[in-house]
Structure formats: C-alpha cells, structure tokens
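My main concern about presentation is that the manuscript never shows what a single data entry looks like. The format is easy to grasp once an entry is in front of the reader. For illustration, here is how one protein appears when written out as sequence plus structure tokens:
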Amino acid sequence: MIIRFLAQIALLVISVGAIRLLLKQCRKPSGWFGRLILRNMNLRHLGVTNWGLSHVAIEEDFAILDVGCGGGRTVQSLAARASEGKVYGIDYSEASAVTAERTNEHSIRSGRVTIQRASVSSLPFPDGFFDLVTAVETHYYWPHPEADLREVLRVLKPGGQLVIIAESYKAERADRITEAAMKLLSARYLSVQEHRDLLETAGYTDVEIVEERSKGWLCAVGRKPQEVVSECVRPYQVQSLP
C-alpha cells in the first residue's frame, strides 16, 4: 500500500512538472524541447494566421514587423506577400529567433528578412519605420500591454496598421476550460471590448475587431493616426538597421 501510494505521488509530481515545463515553453521556448514546440506552433497557427492576415491589405513594398515571431512561419508568409519590401521578426526567446532564422534562411540571405532577439517593450527600430506590424498569438504575454502598444505605435508610419491575431479570447459564452488554461499560462484573457479599449487607449484609431466564433478566433486591427501627439511615443535614437 505504501509503495503504491508513493508511486501515485511520484506520478503526480512528474505530471505537475511536465505541465509546468510545457507552460513555460509556450511562453518562452528554449532548448531542444522549445524547438519542438516552435515547429508545432508553425503548423498549428497557420490557419488562424492566414485568416487574420486576410483582414489587412499588404502591399508588395511594405516594411513589416512581426512581434513575437516564434518559429518564423508568419514572417515567411509576410515576406511572400511583401515581395518587394522587407520583413523583420523579433522574439525575446533565443530559441525562437534561431528557429525563425532557419525557417527564413533563404530570404535572410537575399536581404529580404531580418530576425533578431528583442522585446516588444523596447523595439530596436526608429520612429515611423513600418507600414504594418503583426502580432500572432503573442499579445497575451506582453509585460505592459498599454505601454507596449504605444511602443508599437511609435515604430508605425502615420496611417500604418497593427494587426493582433489570436485563437483565444473571452467570448460572450464563457469557456471555462480555455479560461483556466490561460490562467495557468499567466496569459491575459481579454474580451472583444477589452481589446478595443486597450487599442484605443494606447492611441490607435479606426479600431476593428473581427471574430470567427465557430473557431474562437479574433483579429484586432488598429491604425496609427496621421498626426500623433509627440508625448504619446518615446524618442528613439538608432545608428543603423540590419
């Protein structure tokens, strides 16, 4: 009886440890296990990414930033659409940056894609640099959402757009399982109105929220005004860009 009890305790400890490891890897992939997670994300997020990107116009010569680029599949898709422009991907995970580089190896060699390790809270780009910024399955984890959205606003050109794409949001009908999972991930679980309020408070205009209720997907789009009050964004000095 004692041996069986100890075995059950050991199994529980192992299970809890595995869950914690998985949750940690979802937030910030690292090591060989993180690379496996990233490859899975590249495949699993393809549908929601393509659906979300269908709600913004992408011109061939656009300069685009993908925040939280993960395994780099979104960067790859954006580079195919902006065939005469350039796509930058950033992620605060070293494993993500390495995997994204491998995914986009050819485009990096041709100079059309750049991947680097960086945080949304301090983007290594000058003011008004991008036509479009994308964030796929990542804004849940941003450390300071309103300030981070203002940082994104800073690097957008006047009239440029931010598109947030998510496969989980707080719908009118409560999903207790998803809500519990988001709590375990320490991820923000926002409603449609909360997404709208967050973008508008950060200074975005023409905010549109699109839902795919049958799949639980959300796409939030906001635009940088043609004229932005200077104190809404921080000054940034940059010597050169890759």
